[in-house]
Every structure is written in C-alpha cells, then in structure tokens.
C-alpha cells in the first residue's frame, strides 16, 4: 500500500507540474519548438527546473542503499545506441513536433480536455500495439 500511495503522490505532483508549466497545452509546446518563427522560450525554465530537481534528486537517492519502497534500484544495463532507440526517439520527436503532445502531458491533458488529446491517446495506444506485434514477430522469426 505504501508503494501505491507513494507512486500516486509522485504522479499527482508530476501531473500538477505539467499543468502549471503549461506542458499540457500543445500550442505552448509547439510555440517553444518553433525556433525559426514565433518562438516562446518560457519552457526553458521548465526544463531548467527539471534538470535541477533531477540533479539534486539523483545525488540524494543514490546515497541510499535501496529505495524507500523497494528491494533495490532498477537501473538500465544497456548503454548502446541501436536502431530501435534511434527509430523510437525519432518517432517520439516527430510526433511531439507535429502535435505538441508527448505521453506524460497527454495523459495529464486527458483530465483537462479536448478531443485532440483523446485522438492522440488512441494513436499512441495503437502505436504501442503495433510495436509490440512487430517485436513479437521479430522474436519468433529469430528463434525459428
């Protein structure tokens, strides 16, 4: 129960931060990405704050031997840049640049409105299903 409650509070804080910073507004995000046009640099402050919190948070957390509500830290073991990473990052960036949503803010924006976020969410889920199908097929072909 503590793990659930902790995750809920952290998720709520994250979502609140997304709303306050206007990251749930795709027009604000698109204005930030439009560096050749009517650029809105205000989201630089959001990124700066996120970097500062992350920098401090990592230093505090990794002084511990284990997380508060877990047996150990789950850290990525791979550090290589492969085709899957490049394709995924490219699709993420293209989607973010086209519509102004990425998954975190889009899920948060479901609470505050608009059909465009519903369409984005459906497209995101469809993309996840297609990706899972492709990866399963690749795994089956590799083992055959």
Automatic annotation (TrEMBL):
Keywords, alphabetical: Membrane, Transmembrane, Transmembrane helix
Keyword Transmembrane: yes
Domain of life: Bacteria
Membrane-spanning intervals of the chain: 41-61, 85-111, 117-135
Cross-referenced Pfam families: DUF6691
Protein name: Transporter
């Amino acid at each position: 129960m503590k793990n659930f409650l902790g995750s809920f509070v952290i998720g709520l804080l994250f979502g609140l931060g997304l709303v306050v910073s206007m990251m749930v507004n795709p027009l604000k995000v698109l204005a930030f990405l439009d560096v050749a046009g009517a650029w809105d640099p205000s989201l630089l402050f959001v990124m700066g704050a996120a970097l500062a919190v992350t920098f401090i948070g990592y230093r505090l957390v990794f002084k511990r031997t284990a997380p508060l509500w877990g047996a150990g830290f789950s850290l990525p073991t791979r550090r290589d840049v492969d085709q899957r990473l490049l394709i995924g990052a490219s699709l993420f960036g293209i989607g973010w640049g086209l519509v102004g949503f990425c998954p975190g803010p889009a899920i948060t924006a479901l609470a505050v409105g608009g059909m465009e976020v519903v369409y984005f969410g459906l497209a995101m889920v469809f993309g996840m299903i297609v990706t899972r199908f492709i990866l399963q097929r690749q795994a089956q072909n590799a083992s055959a």
